[in-house]
Every structure is written in structure tokens, then in C-alpha cells.
Write a structure and sequence with these properties.
Order of helices and strands: EEEEEEEEEE
Low-confidence stretches: 117-122
Number of domains: 1
Helix content: under 10%
Number of helices: 0
Strand order of the largest sheet: 3-4-5-6
Distance between the termini: 31 Å
Radius of gyration: 15 Å
Amino acid sequence: MAFKISSMGISTNPVITTIEGTQGNGAGHMKVNKQFNKMAIGNVFDRSIELFDFDNATGAVSTPIIWNTPNPYLVYGIEFSPDGSKLYTLTVDFSTVYQYDIFSNASIHYINIGLRPNYFYAKVRITSTSC
């Protein structure tokens, strides 16, 4: 469900799109890229990442792609690169960052940053345009 936000305020008429997948099962992060044409969800409990086309004019989502994460730990944090070509995910235990090339539908790189036994739910934020 999407609500249009404009200079007039928030629309009371939602756009409802029916799509495949779990859409987070109630836990995880959802992001739209800065180009406003892709949306991603990191699903904690089923260890997957869902990527969709996003229509900024209508709020509709389509063309689901679902990746199962290779790490046994739960995915939680999620962020797009500034140019919208890559998707970064962080496992809930802070141990691994994955980089996905969203145009090839493949995980192309991961960084093991070490296990932290006393962890909190993690999120990812891109702070540089050099990604």
C-alpha cells in the first residue's frame, strides 16, 4: 500500500499492489532508491531480499526479484548506492555486508566484518558517493 505525498499533503486514497513474496514478515528494512524507480526489502525471518520496480508517479510496485541470502544470519539493514545500481545489505549480527548488482541479479561482493556477539538490529546508510 502506498500513499502519495505532495505539496498538498498526504493522499487518503492508497495505491494497493498485489505482489509475490513475504514483504518482510513484519521485520526488516524497506528502501526506495534515490532515482525513485526501485524498492527493496530486507526480510529478517525468511533470510531474503526482495527487489521491485517502483513507479514513483503511481506508487505501484512490480517485477519482483527474490534473493535468498547465503549467510545463516538474518538480513536486516538495506541501502542503495547513490547511483541506484547496487544494493547493500547487512546481517543482523553485523558480521557481513553484501553488495548486489541489481542489474545482473547477482551478489557480486561481500565483506566479512566480524561477529559481534552482543548486537542490536543493524541498518545500513551510504554516506559517500564513491560506492
